[in-house]
Amino acid sequence: MTLLPANSQLLDDVGRPLCSLQAINRLDEAEKERIYSSLLPQRLRDVLGLAENSLCNPAGEKLITFIAPKGLPLVRIEACSKPDGGVVVFFLELSDTQYHQMELSFCIIRDPGSPGYAVDVDEKGENNWFASQGRNIPEELRAMQAGLFPNQTHNGLQLFADFFPLLERFTDALGIEMIVAEPLSYDNAIRYEKYGFDYLRGRRLMMEIDREFQPGGRYFSRLDGSTPFRMPGMERTVNGRSWAIHDGIMDKPWDEVQIYRMIGVHAGINTFPGREDKKR
Hints:
The chain is of the alpha+beta class and 280 residues long. Helices cover 26% and strands 16% of the residues. Among the domains are: 9-111 and 154-181, no CATH class; 115-153, no CATH class. A seven-stranded mixed β-sheet has the order 1-2-3-4-5-7-6, with helices on one face.
């Protein structure tokens, strides 16, 4: 196995190699927490006010929760702004795949000091599962006007740039050579491109989206002001395109996009070279 510079094989406390999440999850709780804590960026610790080398704030209240059941190949890490819940500032879910890959299932990062938008529930207050079970149009409008992307309940902390190198080194230390993911939205896919991901499935779709948002394209012609999410000019930005796609401007729903990142390799993919905005 080839390791990143200055990296080393992950070992348990008696020196045995660890090669999967399932292997880590066989360990005792204290050791699991020690290993999985390596995925927490220092800036996240600073935002939460964690005591040094601790999962607690200075009052001794634990703000980080690890769910890593023995016998299962997954881990969830949840960091909250307050011990009784508050805003979930950082939510991460990873899993092993049958092909010895690391699956980045979810990574949600929120600024606890920013306004919240109830885009994650329908207008009756029920969880809408990323708008697949209904939308909350008034809240989506407020979120879009505030500059957020679809499905964002709060501003981000621009923390993914701190987190991703930790994930890459962690994955590498397990002897795993590939990280895989499924972007939940167009802006997610564009963001992952920045971090060196390529497409297992969906690159042709991404190129088609860019083409059809150009003048004369199908999606360009549908930016006709028929809804607030389909205004002329939205084709020029990742944010605008993503909201239009979220609003159903495509001929079929956004789905089945799969991406991968080889450890230590930046794929250099850019399916929206003419964009005008900076990715959040």
